Amino acid sequence: MGRRKGGIGIALVTGVMLVGATACGGSGSAGDKAGGGDAKASGTPRASASPSPTKPAGPPMLLETITPQTGTTVGVAMPVSVVFTDPVAAKARATVEKHMKVSASRPVPGAWHWFGDKRADWRPKDYWPSGTTVKIDADLNGVANGNGRFGVRAYTHTFKIGDDVRADVSVTGHTMKVTRNGSAVRTLSINAGSAEYPTWNGTMAVIDKEKEVHMTSCSVGISCDKGSPNFYDLTLPWDVHLTQSGTYVHYSTGDPNPGSGSARGSHGCVHLSISDAKWFYDQVKQGDPVTITGSPRAKAPADNGYAAFNLGWDEWLAGSASGEQTTSAL
Description:
This protein is mainly beta. 7% of the residues lie in helices and 33% in strands. The strands form 6 sheets. Strands 4-6-9-8-22 form a 5-stranded antiparallel beta sheet. Strands 5-12-10-7-23 form a 5-stranded mixed beta sheet. Strands 15-14-13-21-16 form a 5-stranded mixed beta sheet, with no helix packed on it. 49% of the residues are buried. Residues 1-21 and 26-53 have low confidence and may be disordered.
């Protein structure tokens, strides 16, 4: 079952809404590339700062979303993701980056990276230190987007980095090892994707999580034929969302006892038992890194959700207009 973007007032800045299929993704085509918005944060949409409109020199340049939502606590792999309502020209990006100031209570090096002309993400060079408070001040009043539009507002988001929770998934070992602040917590039995529908490799920050998600094979282009062995139309519990193309860690009624004994492949998701799925759901939050190894598939594209750390630092800087900078101190 697909999702559609909810109504976000054009000047509101909230968590990004998921766009695309809600299911375990197979080979994925268009869904493999995240669009401008690819995550949903809970809470009521609201403006993050009191706007101070000025008469623009041309049509306004607005932000559609800033993620994470202000006031939230997120994981160590969470980038700051800014989505614009209209394209930003390459010639204007350095100036736009300069006016999107990132500050932190523990200064770290980092940089912006553009995914197309509407989305810019800021990530630290390495994971955020736990306990860090982060603030983004996007003061775009009078700033040009290079395409005839000018900013008319300033936006502020402040969020905190919580405990360092990580999950390391071994596809070939059928295990998920969960750590918290460097200490091992539990090792869980898992099944990942089949040879036909392999799971993405790489590190994916949790987008969001839901107690139930309606998943269909038709929504991700696997099969719309009810007679096909690959057809499914299920509502499944304890869903931790990893990619916009439809990768989840969750429980599946078709694979109730995952592990090396059953070795039943999924359509790209990571399966846990019902008790382990609920336990994992309760442990993780938006931005916690889930790293998958041993799959024959490539790493998830960095904009397929929040997979920023699938790019090496030099690759990340290649998409920045202003290069590496150290956050200002809060």
